[in-house]
Amino acid sequence: MDNLEEVRLDKLEKIRAMGIDPYPAEYRYTHTLEQVQDRFSAKTGDALEADAAVVRVSGRIVARRPFGKAGFLTLTEGGARVQVYARKDALPEAQFALYKLLDIGDFIGVEGRVFRTRTGELTVGAAELTFLAKSLRPLPEKWHGLTDVEIRYRRRYVDLIVNTEARDTFVRRSRIVRELRRFLDERGYLEVETPLLQPIAGGALARPFRTHHNVLDMPLYLRVAPELYLKRLIVGGLTRVYDLNRSFRNEGLSFKHNPEYTMLEFYQAYSNYLDLMSLTEEMIKDVVDAVCGSRVVVHDGVEIDFDDWSRKTVKEAIVEHFPGDIDETHLSRAGAARELLDQLSVDYDPDSSLGHLVGELFEHAAESHLVNPCFVYDYPIELSPLSKAKPEDPATAERFELFIAGMEIANAYSELNDPVDQQARFEAQLEAHARGDEEAHAMDHDYVRALSYGMPPTAGEGIGVDRLAMLLTDSHSIRDVILFPLLRPE
Q1: Is 183 found in the same domain as 58?
Q2: pLDDT value at position 26?
Q3: What is the CATH number of the domain that holds 35?
Q4: What does each C-alpha distance from 420 to 201, 230, 449 come to in angstroms?
Q5: Which pTM does this prediction carry?
Q6: Strand partners, 61
Q7: Which residues make beta-bridge pairs with 66?
Q8: Structural domain tally of the chain?
Q9: 175 in the same domain as 240
């Protein structure tokens, strides 16, 4: 690598010696490479000859085939590629000398006529070359690409250059985000922004990142969720709001967890969690249609049918997928739930409440089996400190989670809007924290005060944008859909 860099540095000095600025401030092109392909790819060689169209294009050299007094270059830019033909008798002497100093990875500008070679390839015949930037490090060999996953994540800039599928993934991810926004905007939702730095880590059961504000001399937390601020806005009369946000949770890494991630969270007044089930199904189908063009999507070798949606209670899902013959009576007593967890060899806290034990059973017995979209609802109230309890069953929350391909994609519930009940729930969470639960929710007196002004019946939901992107780009790891995932230092 050092020798290759020395050779390129030597070429850089030769370019400077020719009086050429190797890093100019701008280049005025007339067409992008994609526009060249769109405008001219349907034309025959004779039509291009008659047209005699001249273009100015720019891009990175990704292939070079010299033939003595002539040669071909391939430029790439914006996902498109165009071939360039450089010939000694068609270029000024100094510019042909420049051509011979070019390396794969360099940026150049080219002006010339568009034509087809004898093999029929669309080509720009170079009449002028402009040097735009030197690549001092060689790109990976084209037939090997950049295959080391760790390096792909650390050097995403190289990954995007040499792996077209990486670029396609992030273009599709961007479209997913755009379609989510469009869907909500068209239904009267207002996009808002909530604080990233918060004095209380709230809105979710999660371990937060801590920081400190020097001037105010106060601890702050990176947002674990925007929930409590969005519901303050519902109190304030903004009846449909959403925040497409970055949130942070101080948790471990896995194929579906990154400490920094993107979440869509939205709230709709005068609605309950069942309303959001229907809205979510419509939303996801809409996004799949726009982004994938088909309701059947392949993820990790498995077909997911976005026309096949189901709804199951937590207990129904456990009974259906537990590797043994059980019924819901086994899930009504803590002792029986512990025995089932022992059968699964799950490590759990034996002092956990029945609701937490049922949650563990669902996670270990059922989640991985939920391939096609499935709404799982009726969660134990202990797992949902911010949700409304079912009137006919106070031990159960009006909450659902959407699972696809064995992953939780969305979480929603009918919001708790009774300030007295909310105060009591926060106090129970404080007790849990005192017992060592680092993910327990902190007390938020201002939020209780906001509820005291009155909040209408409201349903709220969070959707994991990264996981949705994993599904719709056939990516196995969340790191594949985050441009710069968190990694250990090299």
Answers
A1: no
A2: 97
A3: 2.40.50.140
A4: 21, 20, 10
A5: 0.91
A6: 75
A7: 71
A8: 2
A9: yes
Q: Is the same domain home to 131 and 210?
A: no
DSSP 12-46: HHHHHHTT--SS-S----S--HHHHHHHHTTS-HH
Domain that residue 86 falls in: 2-139
Residue 366 has φ and ψ, to the nearest 5°, of -115, -40
pLDDT tens, residue by residue, 243-255: 999 999 998 888 9
CA dist 404 and 309 (Å) reads 10
Q: 232: Cβ–Cβ under 8 A, 6 or more apart, which residues?
A: 447, 450
| Residue 291 in tokens | 């982004």
Within a domain: 342: no
Residue 60 has pLDDT above 60, yes or no: yes
| Spatial CB neighbours of 305, under 8 Å, sequence gap ≥ 6 | 295, 296, 372
pLDDT exceeds cutoff 90 at 442: no
Cα–Cα distance for residue pair 347/247, rounded to 1 Å: 28
**In whole angstroms, what is the distance from residue 281 CA to residue 183 CA?**
12
Quote the CA–CA distance of 88 and 31 in Å, as a whole number.
24
- Give yes or no: residues 195 and 108 share one domain: no
Read off the pLDDT of residues 451-489 as tens digits, 9 standing for 90 and up. 999 999 999 999 999 999 999 999 999 999 999 999 888
Whether residues 168 and 42 fall in one domain: no
Question: Do 242 and 127 fall into the same domain?
Answer: no
